[in-house]
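anyone seen this seq b4? input:
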Amino acid sequence: MPKSLLILSILFLSFCSFGQNEVVWDVQYDSETETILFNAQIQEGWHLYSQHINEGIGPVATSFTIEPNKSVFKLIDSTTEPTPITEYDPNFDGELSYFKDSVQFKQKIKAKSAGEIKGFITFMVCDETKCLPPVDVEFNIMIGNDE
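predicted toks r here
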């Protein structure tokens, strides 16, 4: 019986370690600037990759997919990001651009009416020794009268 408890405990702890959030996203709408704000809090030691990395190198670039809703909004240009950290990564044998600690991506829109904006964020994180598989995080925000 003690061996089975030990095995169950080890299994439970291994599942818990995968359940940690290396990046926590907060998506908001700024009505004054008509901008969707994608705020990422990145756990210490982890890197969140830029939207602009060489595809052939290895990690998945961060991307934002916003479902069209022509009666509610129109996208203006593409999602912007601040200047990332860019350096040579020996694990991928190339230069990579990433963020650490926190970052805010911005997407300008032209609001047409009150309504819902839905979509998802695709991203990948790595630390100095390993990378986690890409993840999709859904978001849903309201714009208009009930912001």
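The longest helix spans residues 2-18. The first strand starts at residue 23 and ends at 30. kinda curious what u guys think
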